[in-house]
Amino acid sequence: xxxxxxEPKKKKKIKKVxxxxxxxxQAGKVGLVLLILAVLGGxxxxxxxxxxKNNQDLARENLRKYPVSVLNSAVKNAVEKVKTDASKxxxxxxxxxxxxxxxxxxxxxxxxxNRDDFAKILQCEISSEDxxxxxxxxxxxxxxxxxxxxxxxxxxxxxxxxxxEGQEPITSVRKSDDQFSFxxxxxxxxxxxxxxxxxxxxxxxxxxxxxxxxxxxxTNPEARAQYTYAYPKAASIKGLLVDPNKLRGNELSDLGxxxxxxxxxxxxxxxxxxxxxxxxxxYSYNGQTYLFDGQVVAEYDIVFSRxxxxxxxxxxxxxxxxxxxxxxxxxxSARKAGACPYYMFNAADKSGVDHLGAIATFLAERYSxxxxxxxxxxxxxxxxxxxxxxxxxxxxxxxxxxxxYADGFRVFYNAIKSVNACAKVYMPVDQTWNRNLNDGxxxxxxxxxxxNSYIKSEGNIDWDLSHHPYPVPLTHAAFWNMPSNYKRLxxxxxSVDTKMVTMQNIHVVTDxxxxxxxxxxxxxxxxxxxxxxxxxxxxxxxxxxxxxAYAYYIAEANSHIDGFLLNRQTDAAAEVAQGMAFGLNNADxxxxxxxxxxxxxxxxxxxxxxxxxxxxxxxxxxxxxxRHY
Length: 629
Fold this sequence. Notes:
Elements: H1 2-18, H2 24-40, H3 45-54, H4 56-63, H5 68-84, H6 90-103, E1 107-108, E2 119-126, E3 133-140, E4 143-144, E5 150-156, E6 171-174, E7 179-185, E8 198-205, E9 208-211, E10 216-217, E11 238-241, H7 251-255, E12 259-265, H8 266-269, E13 281-285, E14 288-292, H9 294-309, E15 313-319, H10 350-366, E16 377-380, H11 387-390, H12 398-417, E17 424-429, H13 444-457, E18 464-467, H14 484-487, H15 507-512, E19 528-533, H16 541-557, E20 561-566, H17 573-576, H18 593-600, H19 606-617
Parallel strand pairs: 1-4, 11-12, 11-20, 12-15, 15-16, 16-17, 17-18, 18-19, 19-20
Antiparallel strand pairs: 2-3, 3-7, 5-6, 5-8, 8-9, 8-10, 13-14
Helix pairs in contact: 2-5, 3-6, 5-6, 10-12, 12-13, 16-18, 16-19
């Protein structure tokens, strides 16, 4: 009888709850929720327990649809009813409270102490299901207290460190637990493209947006690529900085060149054509039109087409030479004409990022297929640790310098990989490893450390390393036996702290990159190519040839080295003037002794053509001086 008298009261409560402004569809669905609350006081113990144990997900789904104030009042009344009924299980009330708390856990106050790393982005990728979408997801240290219980995602330009005044979010989701996930448009090749943006999450606090996470870039631009063929592995590591004047002859075939390198200074590439026979190329990208010199592009077409026809794997080295008409390509802090042959790429403002992205995409599109030749390796800049000599930028601390370079590098990386998934993108350093001279340049090891940590902090990508292990000094071909005045400086050793890296101790670099912190996103070792090293024939042609043979065998025995590209096919007048004749050929085209060694070094006659070198070096067996030979 007592229970019968209580039933009408429950119906009144249900009706009262239904007076909240909801749609008819919501009013119908709320029945399921209120049924749970009703049976708590109605004695249907089995049904109540079964529902709570087996249908919590459904309960959460339905409860989230209604105003918190309504549900809060209903839950409180139901819990109180259970508590006053001694014959009912108090565990049921606790179970309901746990469900409630799991749906609306206690919020965490956001302060200066916990704000910067309260949220962590674990994924920032182009969707595998829809390549027009970006997915950003991660975890938070609880539910942040905010104005509106929502989490927002923002896109932040490469050149900005955080939100700008008046910036609005891309989208938002309601906070329900410590996880978040957003899916939004990539806008590839549109004016509002997000390919080069980084992303962060935040909340609205006291009427303003506040970031709660570090930024992350898209880490898989290759998901958008139109070229997805397998990486064309070269037949051997033997490579050469080719002479464009010898492309039409048969010398490259005679030499058996397997890999080749060629420079692309962007200052030459951009702008109106230099010949009426080769019209200016108008290239549309991200809502803007960019100009490329038709004659210069035709030159690259000839070079890369010829190399591709010969089955040679090609590496293009993109350089930032000075062009007064296109200073937006040079970092604003580095705009000092005549300071250096090449300059820091500009990723510090919108004009620079947009133009670099257009250049990289144009080149990747033109040279990823076979119509104009195929390039699969791209080196971004030259010897970036040599700031004063090859990548001009004002003297700053090494971390700031590495970050300025890394920002530009990532623009090239995302652009190139968004076109050709198999392309490799390299950052280059020279042989100065750990000298600590404080002379205005940087040590390669320091640059590597700073570059790698910065890249990883904003989304790890599959960058690779280009190294230039020239002899010390450059004019001395016999790298195994330095002049006495250099020996006294203890420049070359097998220690990770060696001051310089030559071919004698190149393993220091490849060993260093095998450290866990340097692994690529797939947990693999990064590719290393020796994209430039040469041996001076002014030391004697026999010494030059022996030095090449010794160096090649060292590289060949090192499983982490994917390319050994010699500088160069023909002596360069500018280098000869400085006492360095690195070519296989003299300037007049005549062959040096090293020509024949280069030709046979990776073939069946390799040992016979290099036998003489043992006497020059002073050894009886290559295995005596080469690791893993």
